[in-house]
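Recap from last week: sequence in, structure out.
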Amino acid sequence: MKPVPFQSDSEIATAIPQVVKHLGKGGLLAYPTETVYGLGSRAVQADVAALAALKGRSASKPFLLLISDRGMAEAHGLAFNASADALARAFWPGPLTLVLPGGSGRLPDLLRGPDGGIAVRWTSHQGIANLVAALGVPLTSTSANLPGQPPGPGADAIARDFAPAVASGQLLILDGGVLGNRPPSTVVDCTRPQAHIVREGTLSVHELRRAVGRLAP
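Predicted C-alpha cells:
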C-alpha cells in the first residue's frame, strides 16, 4: 500500500474518507503532526493493543490521544482542573499534552498512565484535526519509530521501518512531507491540583509560567 499524499488542502480532503474507513476496520495509521510523525489507531481496546504490538511497546507505557477540540476530550469524560483549563486556553491547539483524570468506561485502560491519567492534545496540525473531527473520536498517538530509534522524518522512512505492516495492509501511511528535527510536545500532568512537568518539549516551562502564572508547573 503506497503512502497517501496529505499536504495540500485537496489531498487532505481526498484522503480523509479513505483513512476513516481504514481506521473503522481496525487499521493503524502513520501520520504527520505539528511535531513529529505519529502512529495511531482508534481509541478502542483491540486497536490500541494492535498498535502496541506494532510498536513493540510495553502495555505499561501508554499512548496519548489527539483530539479535534476540547469538547471531544470532555465528551469522553476527561476532566479539566484549574491548571488544565488555563493551560488549554493558552496553548491549545498546539504542542502541549495534558495528562487529565477521568475517562473511566469511555476510554481503554491501556491509555491510562501510572498516575491514573490519560494524556491528550488538541493538535494544531489542521489536516489531522480535520481527520479526527471526521473520525468523531480521538486518535491515539505515539512517535513513528522502532524502539530505540528516532522518529521517522517522512513517509519513506516509516514505510521502510514498518514494511511488513504496510505490505499486509494493516498500516496506512499519510505522506505529509519530510518533517524537521523538532522536539516533541511538552507534557504536563494535571491529575492533581498542582500541575507538574512530565516532559519539557517544544514549549518551555518558562513559556508555560509566563502564560498562566501560578497555575503552571
